[in-house]
Write the structure tokens for this entry.
Amino acid sequence: MAHPLVIQDHHFTMHPSGVLFWKEKSMLLISDVHLGKISHFRKFGAAVPQAAVQTNFKKMDKAIDLFQPQVIVFMGDLFHSALNKEWKLFENWIATISSEVILVAGNHDIISPLKYEALGIQVVSEICLDGFLLTHHPEEREACFNFCGHIHPAVRLQGMGRQSIRLACFFKSAHQMILPAFGTFTGTHVLEPQADHEIYALTEEEIFQVQFKASRQRKRP
């Protein structure tokens, strides 16, 4: 179940997979996929099933089939580290994509831009478009609303007693939205929301806005 959002008179759709679709630009934003991380873990003995390697590709296919974007923007950290066998899988996958593909380079994107350009993928440091700034790291720039990644945001929801659960989320402030990490086995970082923040938590099937109540210490989800 997707969730619509209007920012500066532009229409966006948040999806439980963690992607964000920009309707006016027919643009799909995907952050922190970290391809190659599963193979990296397996190489060093982690008990991760081989089948998990295909998980990210299947998730991306579902999001693309749903939104049919003209442009796909990877918001940094598309690959986790250096080349490994998942690069060939990525080459095969990108050959099936008809959309224009752009990579906003992140700190983990150490693979040569020439490798991406050979696949028809443009590599840039940022995108500034119609008052929106697309970056990997969070940025503040006058008169721009910033979409970014890098943080892998999550929120901890507390129930009665000591019950709690951590969920990945879209983390929105007045001039910025941090996208959740899309990739499998990427980890999350819990952020402490303030009263003026909007938090949209993800489950496998739905996305919902987190409501806050006052506590003696802080606003608590």
About this structure: The radius of gyration is 17 Å. Helices lie at 37-43, 55-67, 86-94, 113-117.
